[in-house]
Amino acid sequence: MKKLLIINSSPRAAGSHSRKLTDVFADTWREAYPDSPITFRDLASSNIPHVSETWISAAFKPESQRNDDELEALKISTELICELKAADVIVIGAPMYNWSITSSLKAYIDQVLRMDETWALNRENRLDPYIGLLKNKTVFLLFSRGAEGYEPGEYNDRINFQAPYLRRVFNVIGITDIREVALNGAMFERDAHAISARNAAAEIRILIAAEFLL
Ligand SMILES: Cc1cc2nc3c(=O)[nH]c(=O)nc-3n(C[C@H](O)[C@H](O)[C@H](O)COP(=O)(O)O)c2cc1C
């Protein structure tokens, strides 16, 4: 039975569009796999720390050489990496903030991209020195964005640092099966019909994607 990890990163609660998308995913998943446990990680309330100098000195040396402070500095990172490794399917609710992602999601990424845990260094290949260590996982990126035109070839494509960045992050740690659903134009909420149509479209795509996983 596949294990699901759902990560939310919107600071908003009830009004969050990305949380609506992850809710749809969770509901669809529960219907398909009623006995499968779902782990939820809410980055808005997790207070993931920024990487510190101690964190850096700890992360790039073998565990046996780490002092107590260094072990402590990596504690949250280790917990988040264990959670990530345990999941078969990872769902990220990702609002676009300033053409990229929320700072809580960035802090999370800095904690889980760790040498010899999620990636290894290949010194032989200077062009692409990363070896991803996570295998057989699928990531769903569920985007919400205030404006529109961010899809490939559209007028805002060149300022979309959200989707390509997250793709890169998961590729580096070995995950190449990445599916994306975007809810664009959330700032035009007055047009309730357009928003609900987008929601419905996203929901359908998620349902189809979930079926593919069965
Ligand atoms: C601080 C901040 C920065 C934002 N930056 C962008 C942006 O660069 N591009 C965009 O299309 N929308 C932007 N938005 C709008 C959000 O992407 C949109 O409201 C989205 O639905 C937020 O996700 P949520 O509904 O899950 O909270 C921004 C919103 C906030 C609060």
Strand and helix map with partners:
Layout: E1 4-8, H1 17-32, E2 38-42, H2 43-46, H3 53-59, H4 68-73, H5 75-86, E3 89-95, H6 103-112, E4 119-121, E5 130-132, E6 138-144, H7 163-172, E7 177-183, H8 192-213
Bound molecules: flavin mononucleotide.
Offer a quick outline of the entry.
The chain has helices at residues 17-32, 43-46, 53-59, 68-73, 75-86, 103-112, 163-172, 192-213, and strands at 4-8, 38-42, 89-95, 119-121, 130-132, 138-144, 177-183.
Task: Summarize the structure in words.
With 214 residues, the protein is of the alpha/beta class. The chain has one domain: 3-Layer(aba) Sandwich (Rossmann fold). The protein has helices at residues 17-32, 43-46, 53-59, 68-73, 75-86, 103-112, 163-172, 192-213; strands at 4-8, 38-42, 89-95, 119-121, 130-132, 138-144, 177-183. Strands 2-1-3-6-7 form a 5-stranded parallel beta sheet, with helices on both faces. Strands 4-5 form a two-stranded antiparallel sheet. Helix 1 (17-32) links the parallel strand 1 (4-8) and strand 2. Helix 1 packs parallel to helix 8. The longest helix has 22 residues, at 192-213. It is globular, with a radius of gyration of 18 Å. The N and C termini lie close together (10 Å). The mean pLDDT is 91. Bound molecules: flavin mononucleotide. Flavin mononucleotide (FMN) binds next to helix 1.
